[in-house]
Automatic annotation (TrEMBL):
Protein name: GyrI-like small molecule binding domain-containing protein
SUPFAM superfamilies: Probable bacterial effector-binding domain
Span of domain GyrI-like small molecule binding: 18-199
A Pfam family annotated for this UniProt entry: GyrI-like
Signal peptide start and end residues: none
UniProt superkingdom: Bacteria
Length: 207
């Protein structure tokens, strides 16, 4: 049976529309870093490179190679970790050109360095792209976190962040870093802004 992250990992990807405390385990990702407005073409190109690698692994058995421990699965959603440049932090309003980001797509646990090398090899042959040189394969562990589902435009996320900060204060927690994670459950190209689903997450610790 196909592994569906929406069903098997609901706690990570389909939280309620109110803040909750969760512990996020170690996860493996293809990642690429960047700077600037996420509406720019450069951002879209970086997303494209990540998906080409993610699908290269997903489709490996059809290309004649089955990684050890492989199982049928749905490709994980795009995620982003967001920060601001020093200049951007000084401003009273958000200037999207001053955003720093790491976007990423999670990989199943069976994915090893060897499998990753094969994925790069396949993509370089079929879809060569200079941005491939900027992609890394890394393990991350968010650990104790506060998260919630935000429904609506990305530009309205501040309301959800305020709710999360209230929950963090009430539960005697502190945000570990102002860098936050977003998990894009909806495809922004096919979903109207008012219905976009985005998981928002802060890493926290007890005071």
């Amino acid at each position: 049976m196909k592994y569906e992250w929406k069903k098997q990992e609901k706690n990570l990807y389909l939280p309620k529309e109110k803040p909750e405390l969760i512990t996020v385990p170690k996860q493996k990702f293809f990642m690429i870093r960047g700077k600037g407005n996420p509406n720019d073409e450069d951002f879209a190109e970086r997303i494209g490179v990540l998906y080409s690698l993610a699908y290269a692994i997903r489709m490996m058995p059809k290309q004649g190679y089955t990684p050890e421990g492989y199982f049928e699965y749905t490709v994980y959603p795009l995620e982003g970790v967001w920060d601001l440049t020093e200049e951007g932090r000084k401003l009273d309003t958000l200037n999207k050109n001053e955003l720093l980001y790491t976007i990423m797509i999670r990989q199943p646990d069976f994915v090893t360095e060897e499998v990753v090398s094969k994925a790069f090899e396949n993509v370089r042959k079929k879809k060569p792209n200079p941005l491939l040189e900027e992609v890394t394969f890394e393990t991350m562990e968010d650990g104790l976190s506060v998260q919630m589902m935000h429904i609506g435009s990305y530009d309205d996320e501040s309301h959800s962040f305020e709710q999360m900060k209230g929950f963090i204060k009430e539960n005697d927690l502190e945000i570990t870093t102002l860098v936050h994670r977003e998990i894009y459950i909806s495809d922004a190209r096919k979903t109207e802004k008012s219905k976009l689903k985005t998981v928002l997450r802060y890493r926290v610790h007890h005071r």
